[in-house]
Amino acid sequence: MIAVDGLTKSYGTATVVDGVSLTLPDAGVTSIIGPNGAGKSTLLSMVSRILGPDAGTASVDGVDVFSASGREVAKRLSVLRQDTHMTARITVRELVEFGRFPHSGGRLTPDCRASVTSALSYCDLDHLAHRGLHELSGGQRQRAFVAMVLAQDTRYVLLDEPLNNLDMAHATGVMRLLRRLADERDKSIVLVLHDINYASAHSDRIIAMRDGAVVADGAPAEVITPEALEDVYGMPFTVHRLGDDLVASYFR
Amino acid sequence: MILSSPTRTTAATVAPWVAVAAVVVLAALSLAVGVADVSLAQLFTDPDGQTLLLLSRWPRTAALVLAGAALAISGLIMQQLTRNRFVAPSTAGTVDAATLGVLVSLILFASAPVMGKVLISTAFALAGTAVFVILIQRVQFKDVVFVPLMGLLLGGVYRAIAEFFAYRENLTQSLGTWMNGDFSGVIQGRYETLWLAGAAAVVAYAFAHQFAAAGMGRDFATGIGVNVRRVTAIGLSIASFTTAVVVVTVGAIPFLGLIVPNLVTMAIGDNLRRALPVTALAGAALTLGCDTLARVLILPYEIPVGSIVGVLGAVVFAALVLRKGNRYVTA
Ligand SMILES: Nc1ncnc2c1ncn2[C@@H]1O[C@H](COP(=O)(O)OP(=O)(O)OP(=O)(O)O)[C@@H](O)[C@H]1O
Ligand SMILES: [Mg+2]
Prior knowledge:
The structure holds 2 protein chains of 2 kinds. By secondary structure, chain A is an alpha/beta fold. Chain A has 10 helices and 12 strands. Chain A has 2 domains: 2-76 and 155-249, P-loop containing nucleotide triphosphate hydrolases (Rossmann fold, 3-Layer(aba) Sandwich); 84-153, no CATH class. Chain A is 36% helix and 28% strand. The radius of gyration of chain A is 18 Å and the shape is globular. The termini of chain A are far apart. Chain B has a single domain (5-29, 38-322), classed as ABC transporter involved in vitamin B12 uptake, BtuC. Chain B is 76% helix and 0% strand. The two termini of chain B are 19 Å apart. Chains A and B meet through helix 2 of A and helix 1, helix 9 and helix 10 of B.
């Protein structure tokens, strides 16, 4: 379980995450939605100790993320950031190998190599493994970063907009993959999404943020409603039931 | 595009062997070349030849290999940790600070043993480089070329201070020898400290993975559990120590730590575990080659090797900065 208690972050006079308290389960898919600037990335960065909070605590399976050793946290929690800009000239495989770092300290064991290879094929990257990162399209690079996080093989996986730059086929592919990780390997996937319909179709739970606070939190059926969505985004929605899915429409 | 990856892989596979071969050939050449007319075979068989080999030729060759490798590795580590391809001991104030350190040790403790000088010089180099790193972390505008320019400026300040004291103490000439490497005085008993730089290079290799992770950026490294602050401190300590050892023993070789890592990573990519040994070998090869050239160009006299590498380095540096579509300038 990830326990977040009173996390707060301010820049100048603006409080961008305002005393958020949450618990995230130890399995399943949890989506975080909300408008630009709601504080989603800031919250995720604090939970993954990339950003220090002004107040509050966060712990992963009882390990305090801000005081524990970096390696201990990295064995339990992996993170894909929203901005993955990178200048190093390394290959896709070399990037994915970085995911093994908390386990092996950089010296790859045969187990490491196996999980790197399986992460690569999970993400449909076998044929690109030897390509330089700078020689990939935006979507291919995004998949390489997802593969790296998979290779890290942590119980908790935090992803900030993993569908960035992906076409529909690959976006659906990544969402299915994350769903499968949760179902088959009992992982807890926490991801920030802008496409509320992907959130609706694949999540066990949806957390909606606005102005640094959680404004809705529950199963898709509770959050994907015209009232809740309008409250979050400040615009009208209609919600349709299509087969098993709740589909929100907001295009007109 | 598709073509470039197999090429990169091939380059990465052959590069270590090419580098080893270059070092072996150039080292043999370095042993064979000198004012005394002795053949390579005579060096090993003839008694006088053996003495010459032991006292002068071998120490000089070993010193060239060690100093070249050490400075090149320092450059690679500094580039990785600052994430800037133009940062090296000679462009981050490290060499100037190390020189100031030797000067201070000489003024304060005239008869300090070599190790004392090395340690004081290391402390200065580390402090001087730390000032640079802290400065560039504070600066908002992190232009790739602006960063080393700031280092050069800072180095200029250290050098001005050093020159002021050197002038007062009548040591300006020594200052020149620390700043500009010259191996003509290397004989048995006067280069052995350089093995410490070799040892530091081995330590650096043990940390290669950590340096690589830190070089991917603070957030990235934090995500995989690497303590960037600690790793940076270790890396800069190694680079400062190596630079100090070289400055104290034979004098710095300007630009070497800048150009060698750039040329190597351009050819084989940024995988540090692979790039580090190749960089060391290439640094050794370049130093050997330039020194041999320095010895034969105006026989029986010598040009300081630092001058030759310096000229070469300035040209390559300019080419790197101006290179069209240079990924690091735009990145
Ligand atoms: N370093 C910073 N300095 C000042 N303000 C910042 C900084 N980082 C973020 N902010 C502000 O904090 C607020 C929340 O940012 P955050 O990145 O968490 O939003 P987000 O919900 O992830 O948005 P998006 O959907 O656009 O990614 C924004 O208003 C942003 O301008
Ligand atoms: Mg964001």
